[in-house]
């Protein structure tokens, strides 16, 4: 095998050693050294892989394919960027703005509610072509209430464009999106938008990316002018000016670097090389040897570091002014990976869930993941990412979870809310199917393999409210709720066992308001909503022992079960991953093994509802140490009730506390209203975390209990003359003040007394 082919497998150090004649000749001897054994096994692996290599046509198709998402904080210009991408790629003939005067609205914001409110509510998929490369694009919402849309889009995408405002920069939802990209190992390009806005400062934004998002970043472009004088950009690598001309910026004009910017461009290039030297070995070696890398070497290094998620290249422009979007498209193709350059894994269900690597070729057995459901006029529309194999119209697919065999009757590509029928879809593509009964995160195969893709992370709901239809006999009420639950995993519905009210839960006030409004518009069901309810939790603060005996004699065989042990709090830092734990330390068979699962069920029953305010109990570990059983009277029910009552008694003696959701609130307003903003947050028991002044605007970050945030939008508008805006996201659950806890317990007791 040639030496250059061994390089990526055996490492640069070994390859360097092999260049010496002595070692090279020694390496050629047929001795079974560990190195030769490893290399031989690699050869066998490569031979096996060669047997399933794709055709040249298939390889070309995959290398010319990009699956990307457009993500950002709300109002950073994601949908506007996507609208320009569709226009410049020839997908649409006219540009319409998000809040345009023509009342048409952007292509990707197809829902009436989206166009009225000027925000993206649902992620929308489309496809386009740029320079011979096919693009599957998903435009995602920026509001934290619809974060599940971003979550499931990033789960199936190979790369992303992170859009940042040139003034506001890294904001709260930007940090959330960054966390989601890291969760699914998604490489990203950063695009600083709104360069025409007053106060635009790209160097400050790049600094924020490095320090707030903790990822090395450097600009590939330098702006020519800024704010009203923003004309175009200088390509740092090609060392030339780039301007957008024509009525909608469709004509690209290249020119010389303006004389007054030569030093700035050289400094930007040096900064780019220095940043790359820290994350890329090849540029690092040239940097140490004080050699100047060529343009091709720098571009190759940017691509390697971006795909390895060690670096994010930064571009800039103004989508609303039709500047910089074509260069962004070029960067997507140059620096973001194709499906073969991303490692995806699946679990072999028949082989103890062994982790297997997905082979993204169409000549493999079909594996696809349903990541989004939508109710269309032809029934349920299921979005699927084809990870492996080919999906064809008329073929059969198997639902891994249920084992059902499904015929693919219709296969479509989506363009916002319109669709195009296709006969087949290859590996790496995104498509949609009709008439399939499944849920978000379900895996489909062709039946020859029994594998499952990992599903997506679904955050817990933070707010609830009661919902009652005005017409008690409304037939579409339950139909609408069932549909919304299937579409959105963060939208949850349950019936309160005591009040018999329907309770809906979600990620925020706006999230629930949108669904209530959709019920009215799409199902003609007018609803009355109750006061929003915060998702409180209860927890223990100290260790508490229990020794409980459950005895009941009713003639004949009775019920008997005794349990002994203790409960203790779990470290609060582990609440998210480990909200509860049951530990069995019983020895000697004092509790027969067939009753131990019943003991755990009794513990789980106790967690469902605390005694203080009736909310779930978290952060408690139950350790079962001993017990006693009766030969005749003991049963699963007896031990379940014994454990349930033992937990209730021990929990009351463990210094229980009520936990409330605390939100990370970010408020931006003109500097002259900073005092009003700080005062309003302090009044709501907020803890100020950070304040930052950006030109004429100030940004205040604080942690505020969700229970104190209701009605804040109205207060902020009046305190800032309508110029302030805020966003919030769930941070953690924290103990409430003792005075608040007493009030909440009294309210709960009063509600119970009313029901009696």
Rounded average pLDDT: 83
Task: Report helical residue fraction.
Answer: 25-40%
Q: Based on CA inertia axes, which overall geometry fits?
A: globular
Q: End-to-end distance, in Å?
A: 83 Å
How would you describe the overall organization of this protein?
The chain is of the alpha+beta class and 756 residues long. It contains 20 helices and 38 strands. Strands 18-17-23-14-15-22-19-20 form an eight-stranded antiparallel sheet. Strands 2-3-1-4-5-11-6 form a seven-stranded mixed sheet, with helices on both faces. Strands 25, 26, 27, 28 and 29 form a five-stranded antiparallel sheet that branches. Helix 10 crosses helix 11 (281-288). The radius of gyration is 30 Å and the shape is globular. Mean pLDDT is 83; it is low at 1-51.
Summary, kept brief:
With 756 residues, this protein is α+β, with helices and mostly antiparallel strands. Helix content is 32%, strand content 29%.
Please give a handful of descriptors for the protein shown:
eight-stranded antiparallel beta sheet; globular; disordered N terminus
Write the layout of secondary structure elements.
Layout: H1 3-18, H2 21-28, H3 34-50, H4 56-63, E1 65-72, H5 78-88, H6 112-117, E2 124-130, E3 133-139, H7 147-156, E4 159-165, H8 172-183, E5 188-193, H9 202-212, E6 217-219, E7 221-224, E8 232-235, E9 240-245, E10 251-255, H10 262-279, H11 281-288, H12 295-307, E11 312-316, H13 325-335, E12 345-348, E13 354-357, E14 367-376, E15 379-388, E16 391-392, E17 396-399, E18 405-407, E19 411-415, E20 418-421, E21 424-425, E22 430-434, E23 443-445, E24 451-453, E25 463-469, H14 476-487, E26 492-495, E27 502-506, H15 509-523, E28 527-529, E29 533-534, E30 537-539, E31 544-552, E32 559-569, E33 580-584, H16 596-608, E34 620-628, H17 636-652, E35 657-670, H18 674-683, E36 687-694, E37 697-705, H19 712-719, E38 725-735, H20 738-755
